[in-house]
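Exercise 7. Given the encoded structure of a 96-residue chain, write a plausible sequence.
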């Protein structure tokens, strides 16, 4: 249980599971489940989870939890969900 209390390190040394694309299937609840499955898969496989800023996942999560933006909302978001946010393809250079 202790291993789930903290986010694992997200580094370029580890493979990354990337959530990208804008196409969604199903309702909001199904999309939320897919996001939660991705978090669990990343933890179970000891890989990092990345999210493209224009993806279905960010669209879903911003609408649900990020109604108020602060200056450091990205840092808070990454810490809360144990993910790495990417704005564009160029930022993915060096990640597996």
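Solution.
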């Amino acid at each position: 249980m202790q291993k789930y209390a903290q986010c694992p390190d997200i580094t370029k040394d580890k493979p990354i599971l990337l959530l990208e694309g804008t196409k969604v299937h199903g309702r909001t609840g199904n999309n939320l489940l897919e996001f939660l499955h991705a978090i669990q898969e990343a933890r179970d496989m000891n890989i990092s989870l990345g999210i493209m800023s224009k993806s279905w996942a960010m669209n879903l999560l911003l609408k649900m939890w990020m109604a108020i933006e602060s200056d450091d909302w990205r840092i808070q978001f990454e810490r809360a969900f144990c993910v790495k946010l990417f704005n564009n393809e160029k930022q993915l250079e060096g990640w597996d």
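Remark. The chain has a mean pLDDT of 83. Students should compare their own answers with the one above.
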